[in-house]
């Protein structure tokens, strides 16, 4: 486990503590330019005075059950693995997420994180009808817009996407918060403590461009898909500041 945190505050002040469960390995590009995905997430979500730590979940590194109470919230990242897979580390992650849910800790799931949260809570995930790569406009539901009204979230919310899996069926008692033309469940919430987002609010355009090149090199997408994805980056800007407000407000219990 590694970490880093902001400074400030008096000696008696209780500092909020968060953990990123990193479900992917850092690419050389992200390590070189951003210092790794952990720093990308802290850049999106972190605030002065907080403590942020990272567990490399894809390597089998997870917080022990007795350590869960020490955290105010968790972030589950994207991954190259399938959320419907049965790798040992995925099974261990599912067990941990059920424990975290039972303690009603705040959890924000991104892409794979969104899907694995759904699975842990009793939903179903699987392959989508093809890849969704590029900037996709998602549409928050009326109930979501009402919940998020203080954040001034627009009714059309572009976000960077890069996935070929999706949530097929929500867990019992979960609520769809947003949809897109390609994906019926772009966001969901479960109670007031769990939220899943299929897109990547943390991604920059540059991160996605390098990912597109890697997918092409591995023959995972065709040239026509890559060209369409790059065209979407030119045509529309992701609403990064709106997504930042949304994610931070949820994770910090300010909704």
Automatic annotation (TrEMBL):
A Gene Ontology molecular function term of the record? peptidase activity
**The entry's keywords:** Cytoplasm, Hydrolase
Glutamine amidotransferase domain residues = 66-205
- CDD domains in alphabetical order: GATase1_1 (cd01741)
The domain of life for this entry's organism is Eukaryota
One GO cellular component term, please give it.
Answer: cytosol
Task: Please provide the Gene Ontology terms (biological process) for this protein.
Answer: glucosinolate metabolic process
Q: Does the keyword rRNA-binding apply?
A: no
PANTHER family in alphabetical order: GLUTAMINE AMIDOTRANSFERASE CLASS-I FAMILY PROTEIN, EXPRESSED (PTHR42695:SF13), GLUTAMINE AMIDOTRANSFERASE YLR126C-RELATED (PTHR42695)
- Tell me its family: Belongs to the peptidase C26 family.
The protein depicted here goes by the name Gamma-glutamyl peptidase 5-like
Q: Which gene encodes it?
A: LOC103710194
């Amino acid at each position: 486990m590694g970490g880093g945190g902001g400074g400030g505050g008096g000696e008696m002040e209780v500092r909020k503590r968060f953990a990123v469960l990193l479900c992917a390995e850092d690419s050389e590009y992200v390590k070189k330019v951003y210092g790794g995905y952990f720093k990308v997430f802290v850049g999106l979500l972190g605030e002065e005075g907080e403590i942020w730590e990272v567990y490399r979940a894809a390597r089998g590194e997870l917080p022990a059950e007795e350590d869960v109470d020490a955290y105010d919230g968790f972030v589950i990242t994207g991954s190259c693995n399938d959320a419907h897979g049965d790798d040992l580390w995925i099974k261990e992650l599912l067990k941990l997420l059920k424990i975290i849910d039972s303690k009603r800790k705040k959890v924000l799931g991104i892409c794979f994180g969104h899907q694995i949260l759904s699975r842990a809570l009793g939903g179903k995930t699987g392959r989508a009808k093809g890849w969704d790569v590029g900037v996709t406009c998602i549409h928050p539901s009326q109930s979501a817009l009402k919940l998020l009204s203080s954040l001034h979230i627009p009714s059309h919310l572009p976000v960077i996407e890069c996935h070929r899996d999706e949530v097929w069926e929500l867990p019992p008692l979960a609520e769809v918060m947003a949809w897109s033309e390609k994906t019926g469940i772009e966001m969901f919430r479960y109670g007031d403590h769990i939220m899943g987002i299929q897109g990547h609010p943390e991604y920059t355009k540059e991160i996605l461009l390098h990912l597109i090149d890697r997918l092409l090199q591995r023959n995972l997408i065709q040239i026509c898909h890559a060209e369409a994805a790059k065209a979407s980056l030119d045509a529309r800007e992701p609403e990064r500041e709106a997504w930042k407000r949304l994610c931070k407000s949820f994770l910090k219990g300010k909704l």
